[in-house]
What does this fold into?
Amino acid sequence: MKWKRSERLVDMTQHLLANPHTLIPLTYFSSLYDAAKSSISEDLAIVKETFEERGTGRLITVPGAAGGVKYIPVVGEREARDIIGGLIHSLEDPDRLLPGGYLYMTDLLGDPHLLDRIGKLFASWFADRRVDAIMTVATKGISIAHAIARHLNVPVIVVRRDSKVTDGPTVSINYVSGSNRRIQTMVLPKRSMKSGQHVLLTDDFMKVGGTMNGMKNLLQEFGCEPAGVAVLVESEDVQEERLVEDYLSLARLRKVNEKERTIELIEGNYFTKGGNPQ
It folds into this structure.
């Protein structure tokens, strides 16, 4: 089958979007479309220009016999502010207020479109860092972890509170919960990680950072390094010293008034934290 250029461009774009952070040899496209490498290079130049104009991402070309092309998802500042602004607007709905000052976020964490945008937003920030896996605790943070992993094209590691028969041999540690100062346990199968990996830690909400600190300690048991910490919402009202200083957040919860049923949030440190590749 001889592909038309328009057909190649559509199929090539879909393949790149479905395989972010993956080096694809030009010979793969050349063989797939039965086209010369020069024609494939011209096609990729069109895709690259379109991606950059639309703010879809970057297309990196790696020269040499072992080279190829790699798609890097990118979110521009305008889109990032739109995502974060929409998130804050949704979270400030008084109907989300639960007893004890907690916020109901389950519906947002189950919205595939929103999660995909949030995942790409975090992935964009960490695009130029080495990230071998995403780690989270077996709670609502799982959906965020998978959303980020989708755009970084890395596996997700889920830490549990207790071991399962299907986990096989496990490693467990005790850590101090930052919010209530209770001793809790984290368990992870030995086969989950390999020594030397760089792991991005994530969760939906962070107050003092006890859970994040516990995951960092767990990484040490495996001989791995934290690649960063990404949280959806952080709390500004922290009475104790925060256990995690280097983190990235999209929104910051400033004030909750249960009597007046008001919720106040502002932007997190996504735009102010140094090192943002965008």
User: Anything to note?
Assistant: The chain has a mean pLDDT of 91. The longest strand covers residues 225-235.
